[in-house]
Amino acid sequence: MTADDLLIRRAEKADADEVFALARDFGLTFRPERDAFDAALPELLANDSALLLVAVAEGRVRGYLLGFTHLTLFANGPVAWVEEAMVQPGSRRQGIGRTLLEEFEQWARSRGARYVAMATRRAPEFYHALGYEASATFFRKVLR
Fold it and tell me: Among 6, 29, 60, 69, which one is most buried in terms of CB atoms within 10 A?
């Protein structure tokens, strides 16, 4: 696959099956359920503060990225947060993740975001190579 073979675009409802399959591979703590996914997808696609991108190669969705912008008080404006980024295991190391993230960064800049952040323990070398730095410890509490 070459860069010319890769299309990054906003997700559409028609991408649901392929994005859901990737989301199932993404989830470690939670197991995505199709009913919840199907309820969330239209809301995310309609949310002006959300961006759901897909990477399409050879007619198939090979990766996706879901991110948001939101206002903050401490950063003097909005910031951007990558919630999910997933590339199909057989399609990694081909520039898909980099291209998804670069497209998200461009969108975040256009919305005045001061920075892009994410919480992940996966692929630190990948994020360092793109100019990201470790910044904080991530805490979470699962609500039941």
Answer: 69
